[in-house]
Amino acid sequence: MSAENFLERTRINAMRRNDVLPVEIRELADKDINKFEMNAIPLRINNRCVITSRPRGIVPEWRMSRIVWRHLADYNKLSGVQRAMWG
Which GO cellular component terms, listed alphabetically, does the Swiss-Prot or TrEMBL entry include (predicted)? Predict the structure, then answer.
C-alpha cells in the first residue's frame, strides 16, 4: 500500500513543506495527507522474520530473526554460514 501511494504522498508532502506557496494551499495539503490510510505511511513498514513473524533481531541478509537463523546455522541448513572456531 505504501508503494501504491508513494508518488501522491510525495507530491502532497512537497506542497506542505513549500514556504513559497500560500498558507491556504499548505493547509489543504495538510488535510489531504490526513486522508491517507495509516498503512500507506512508509514508516509503518518494518522487517519481520519470514518464519516466525518476530519483529526484533532480524538478520537482514536472510530476513530471519536471530533465533531462527542461529538454529538453522547450527544444523547446517544455511549455505555459506560456518560456526566460529578457535582454540
Answer: mitochondrial small ribosomal subunit
